[in-house]
Design goal:
By secondary structure, the protein is an all-alpha fold. The chain is 36% helix and 0% strand.
């Protein structure tokens, strides 16, 4: 997660909802409230297994290590918490649900090749040509 998306949880004061053991790492990765626009500063959502598809994200957000406020809301909202807990508890359940989600996404006729495009920035749409 790019620091620009989470500095408001660190500065001017650290969000008390964050796991205090996780905060020093976040502050190390995002050391300033005012970011250098040319620097690529980021914090990984999952420090233990960042390159492995697993259910560690769900365990992390239950341990208040979610980087965005929406991660905290997902873990603690009464409507979504049971699903988060189930995903965190069972790697098998996580893979079952992940495979269902990927199947649904692939059935929605995604644009490929020259018909589609890759987002240059994940939070904004590319400009129309």
């Amino acid at each position: 997660m790019h620091c620009v998306k989470l500095v408001h949880r660190l500065y001017p004061e650290v969000d008390l909802a964050l796991n205090p053991n996780h905060v020093p790492h976040m502050l190390h990765k995002c050391p300033n409230q005012i970011l250098n626009p040319k620097a690529v500063q980021y914090v990984r959502n999952d420090r233990e297994t960042p390159m492995v598809p697993d259910n560690n994200y769900y365990r992390n957000i239950l341990d208040n290590k979610g980087l965005l406020i929406v991660h905290h809301q997902l873990a603690y909202d009464k409507r979504t918490r049971p699903y988060v807990k189930k995903m965190a508890k069972s790697q098998d359940y996580f893979f079952k649900e992940l495979s269902k989600a990927i199947t649904i996404l692939s059935e929605n006729n995604p644009l490929t090749g020259t018909k589609g495009e890759i987002s240059k920035q994940c939070n904004v749409a590319n400009k129309l040509h």
